[in-house]
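1st attempt posting a full record on here, be nice pls
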Amino acid sequence: MNTLHTVPFGDLRKGIETILARKDGADYVQKLLDEANRRFARHYPHITTFWEGFEKITNAGGYQMVPPNPTE
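the predicted structure (as tokens):
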């Protein structure tokens, strides 16, 4: 049986702010989001900025990791 574990954010916000402060970092992340939306969003709701996604995850309680099932 898999158990959920909450992953602590630590200094994730500061690290991401550092990356996004650089124009090439911000441009890369935005292009990645745009391409993911183009390929996978279809008619489903999707995020348009990194911080929008970050806030949704934070407000929902953070990331959850599920260990792989060794029998699969």
